[in-house]
Design brief:
Elements: H1 2-5, H2 13-34, H3 42-46, H4 49-60, H5 66-71, H6 74-83, H7 93-119, H8 135-142, H9 150-169, H10 176-196, H11 199-215, H12 217-226, H13 228-245, H14 248-261, H15 273-289, H16 300-311, H17 316-319, H18 327-335, H19 337-354, H20 358-370, H21 380-395
Amino acid sequence: MFFALAAFPLMTPTINSIVIITTCLLVIYNLITTCKPIKFNKNLILLTLVFWMFFIYQFIANEFSFKIILLNLPFLVFPLIFYFRPEYIEKKIKDQSLTVFQISVVIASLYFLSVFLISNQTKSLFLVNNYNIPFFRDFVFNKASLKIHPTYIASFLLISYTISLFKFFKNTLSNNYIKTLHIFNMLFLCFMIVLFNSKIVFLVLLISNGVFLFFYFKRFLKCCRKNPLKSITFTIITIVIFGIFSSENLIIKRFIELKTELSSPIKGDYYNSTNIRVAILKCNLSLLKNVPVLGYGNALQNKLNGCFKANYNSDFYIKSTYNTHNYYINLILYGGWLFLFIFLIYIFTLFFSIKHTTLAIFIILQILVINLTENYLSRHYGIITFNYFLALFAFINHKDSALS
C-alpha cells in the first residue's frame, strides 16, 4: 500500500482517499498486533501544525466547515503514516516510491495525449485558441475524464523531471539502460510541461535548471569529463527547453499575453487569464487592508466575489470560482496574520527535517514558489503532493547518494 500512495497522479480524489484510508488502517493494525509503543516527538507534532491550525480554527469561526477539516487532513495523516510505518517498510522504499511516482506521471501523460489525439489532429497539440489557451490544456481541463487541473499535472511533471535530473547527474546510476531511460524521461517531461502550458511551472523549471547548474557546476564538469554522455544530455535538454520556449504558438503567446493584457481591464465578456489575475490581486490587496484579526474564515470566497461584483462589470466570477491564487495571501485572509506566522514555523521545521536531502529541498521549494501564483495547498492534489514528499523524505532518513 505504501507504493500505491506514490501512484496518486493516476487516481481520482475518491480512489486516492480510499488508498490513504486503507494504508492508515494497515498501519493501525500493525501497531496493535506488534504492541509497538506509541511515542510522539516535537518534530512530528510541528509537522502536523497546519492541520491543527485549520482544525482549531473551525471551532472559533462563525461557520464550522467539515470540508475544510477533510481537505487539510493529509497534513496530519501523512506524517503519522510514515512515522508509525511498519518496520518491514525499509529505507529502500524511498527510491522505489520515487520510481512508482515517475512511472505514474508518464502513464498519466500518455493517457491525456492518447485521449486528446483520438478526437483531434496531431497539429492541434501546438495550437492555441483566441484566449491564448492551448487546445490541449483546455481539453484536459474541460473534457478529460480524469479531472486534474493542468497546473497540478504540470507540477507532477516538474517533480518527476527534478528526480531524474538528480539521479542522472549525481553519479548514482551504474546501469546504462536506466541512464537512457532518465534521459528520455527528462526530454518527454519537458515536452509535456510545455503542452500543459503553466507559466509558473515553466518558470520554475528554468529556475531549477539554473540553480542546479550553479550549485553543482564543478561536480557537473567533473562528471562530464568522465562521462561525455551527461554533457551531451544536458546540452540537448537545454536546447529542447529553449527551443520549445521560442515556439510561437505555445509558450511565447502565453507570455506576450502578460504584456498586452495587464493594462486591459475586465469588461463584460472580455476577460482572460491575465486580467482575471490582475483583478484577483487587486481584490486580495483590498481585502488585506481591512483583514480582521482572525481573518474572514469560511466567508472569504464570498468576500472575494463581493469585491469582483463591486469593481467589475462582468459575471466572470459567477461562471467560475476564483480564489486568491496565492496561498500565502490566502492564509492571511482566511485566518489572519497568525495563520501565516504558524505556517512559517511549520516551513522552518519542515526544512530542518529534510535538510539531509537536497532533492527534497528542491521539490519543496518548487511547490512553495508555485504557491505564489496558485492556491496549490488548497486543493486535493496539491496537498497530497506536498505532504507525500514531505513525509517520504522527513521520516525515512538515510544518507543515500542518489538523493542526498
